[in-house]
Inverse folding.
């Protein structure tokens, strides 16, 4: 399974930007899909998550400004970012958990996208 994130780009301070993430195939027994971000010189942090039933959680730093959602096709994830601040500048990564078949039976794995850059708002 490969995750492809897209949507990063130039934005003005206080503006909005949407990211999307699409899996290359259906993810078996997916429980949750997340957005993470990593700013220069900082550790990767969880931005928000959404379960298969649509329950969401957000980091305090983005609560009320960001919205995470899954597409009608379960292998698509969105992040809508409003009221962007300079501190939102980071590379944003999507991830998802799921089962893969191995010689030892099904195993749960976490799949990561390649990251998309959200630059500092102008």
């Amino acid at each position: 399974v490969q995750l492809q994130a897209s949507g990063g780009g130039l934005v003005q301070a206080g503006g909005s930007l949407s990211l999307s993430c699409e899996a290359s195939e259906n993810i078996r027994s997916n429980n949750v899909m997340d957005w993470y971000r990593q700013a220069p010189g900082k550790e990767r942090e969880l931005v928000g998550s959404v379960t298969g039933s649509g329950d969401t959680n957000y980091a305090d730093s983005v609560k009320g400004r960001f919205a995470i959602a899954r597409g009608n096709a379960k292998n698509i994830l969105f992040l809508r970012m409003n009221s962007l601040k300079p501190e939102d500048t980071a590379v944003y990564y999507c991830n998802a958990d799921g089962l893969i078949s191995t010689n030892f039976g099904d195993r749960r794995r976490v799949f990561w996208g390649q990251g998309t850059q959200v630059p500092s708002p102008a």
Summary: The beta strands are 3-6, 17-23, 32-38, 45-51, 56-58, 66-70, 76-81, 90-102, 105-112, 116-118.
